[in-house]
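Q: I have 159 residues here and want to know how they pack in 3D. Can you give me a structure?
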Amino acid sequence: MRSKPERLTHDYDGELVVFLIGMRINRWSRVRDWLPTFRAMPPMITELMSDPDSGAVGYRLFGLPRTPTVLLYWTSLDKLYEYASDPDSKHRPAWGEFNRRARTADGSVGIWHETFQVERAETFYYAMPPTGLGAATALKPVTTKGARGRMREGRTASA
């Protein structure tokens, strides 16, 4: 007999940073310009996810094929910056290589990133495998006390 799906929310207290990073293939024919950029991210994700002290706690890839984008959850802005500037990380050589190629790539590949420090987060999952912030942290059942989004976000019902 199948169990009834649970109503869940994420279970996490502490600093939370959401980092979005992506690329855009502007000229498909210039594979030599965009393929190295595309290939640079998976080793970085592997490095981060295999190191519990990195501060990266989860990620999601989307936007394929033209605009591959990675959403990363971090436990600290300092940890994110520490990784980005660490000379022994996979990021530093990839960033240097991108900058060298960009001089001759004539805009055939673009890159971007956005960083958000999250004060409060509200999540809800029903009949879903662990996804998003819930997959990056932990899940707990939504109780009657946290049944409304404003309550899960930390606001009162009258806020």
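Q: Anything worth noting?
A: The longest strand covers residues 16-25. Residues 155-159 have pLDDT under 50 and may be disordered.
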